[in-house]
Structures are given as C-alpha cells and as structure tokens.
Amino acid sequence: MEIFLDSFDVTGITKYRDYIVGITTNPTILAQNINTMDDLHKQLQQMLQQFPGLLINLQVSSAKADQMVQEASKISEYGENFIVKVPCTFEGLKALKEIGKLGLKTNATLCFSFVQAKMAQDLGATYISPFLGRMQDAGHDIAEFVYKLRKVVVSSKILAASLRNVEHVELAVAVGCDAITINEQVFDSIFSQSLLQKGQAMFDALNKISYL
After folding, report:
1. Could you tell me the pLDDT band of residue 195, with boundaries at 50, 70 and 90?
2. Percent of the chain with pLDDT over 90
3. Which residue, of 54, 74, 140, 167, has the greatest Cβ tally within 10 A?
4. pLDDT at 196
C-alpha cells in the first residue's frame, strides 16, 4: 500500500520520508505554507532536490475544464514526479480525460459516490480519492461505502483521503485500498497507541542485554 503525507511541510516530509511515496496537497494546505507562485516554485524545487522520487500531488485551481488542462500542462513542466489533482465535478472529470492525453498521472479528488468513481475510472484517472472523513461527518456509512467502492474501482488506484484517525486508516487498509493519505497527527497516532507503548515499556524494563 502506498502512503502519502497530507502536507507541504519539509520538516514533516523529512520525518516520515522512509514511510511515504509522496505527498498530497490542496489549496488549503498550500495557502498555509506559501504566499506567491514564486514561493511555490522555490519550495517545489527544494523538495525535488532534497527528496528524489517523491510523488507530489498538486490540485488545479480553475473551475473550467479547458483552464484545468492548461494548469496541468504547467504542472507537468516541473517534471515526472507530479500528479495532477482534479475535482470530481462536471468540469473536473471533463478535464481529466484531456489531462490523461498529456501523459500525466491524475488524481480524481473530492469523490463522494460510486458514480463519480466509476466515471473517473473510465476517464483514465490514475488515483481516485474518496473523502471518508467528510462522508462520515455527513452521516454516511463509510465502511459500507468503501467496501463497495473496492468492487467498483478496479483499474484506477483508490487513494483513501480525509482520514481523521487511526480507525479510518485501519478501515482503508482492511478493504485493500491501494493508497492512503494522512496528516502528521494521524501518522503519529499510529505509533502512540496505548497497547504498543505499554508493550514496549514492559520489554524495556525487562531487557538486560544490548547488541551494540
């Protein structure tokens, strides 16, 4: 399973680099880390140099399909490490097919239904990102949804997003999602579970040898 860090922070990427294949970003995350396009360009160049091979998801900001395609073309100029995120809107899915023709990897984001997922898959999406946390907030049974989604999506990769806690992560893993994206808080929670900490503390107290 591929793990992405939902962040644009170099410190966080450095901390989790051994575990992740890449990062996911959205307009909210970028707004918290940069102020101008020049800032974005400089930080992307730094990341590409510091983290060779890191996959970077960048989301288009335009609302119209033709402009999304133009943005995708600009993103492609950064190199082969980039995945273009487009929303599962009417215009977004329209753009998805054309972006795929440019030979770019794509991520159909803001997916909330089987119909959206099936259409995105048929239009060639590399990844499809269901927003499980937001769906649960709206009262949906996300366990049932993601189990059924795994049967619907077969040629695109399911990248489970909006994972708010370890339980969401475990659900995504259990149903065989191809990828997940989590923030630093959720990442840390995986290693801070009480049983893990108690078990390690017990071993530490009993351990009388060292191989160093």
Report:
1. low
2. 86
3. 54
4. 66
Q: Which of 15, 64, 85, 198 is catalytic?
A: 85
**Torsions phi, psi of 129, nearest 5?**
-110, 95
- Give the pLDDT score at 207: 74
57 phi and psi angles, rounded to 5 deg: -90, 120
Confidence class for position 210, pLDDT limits 50, 70, 90: confident
Which residues share a beta bridge with 58?
84
What does the alpha-carbon distance between residue 55 and residue 207 come to, in Å, rounded to a whole number? 40
Beta bridge partners of 139: none
Q: Which amino acid type is present at position 205? A: A
For residues 207 and 84, what is the distance between their CA atoms, to the nearest angstrom? Answer: 49
- H or E stretch including 29? helix 27-33
In whole angstroms, how far apart are CA 183 and each of 8, 38, 39, 158?
Answer: 10, 25, 22, 18
What's the pTM? 0.92
CA–CA separation, 53 and 178 (whole Å): 19
**Residue spans of alpha helices (H) in 34-183:** 37-50, 65-76, 90-101, 114-122, 132-137, 142-152, 166-174
Please say if 85 is a catalytic residue: yes
What distance in Å separates the CA atoms of residue 158 and residue 150, rounded to the nearest whole number? Answer: 8
Domain boundaries, the chain: 2-206
Is 90 exceeded by the pLDDT of residue 186?
Answer: yes
Give the DSSP H/E element, type plus range, for residue 203: helix 194-206
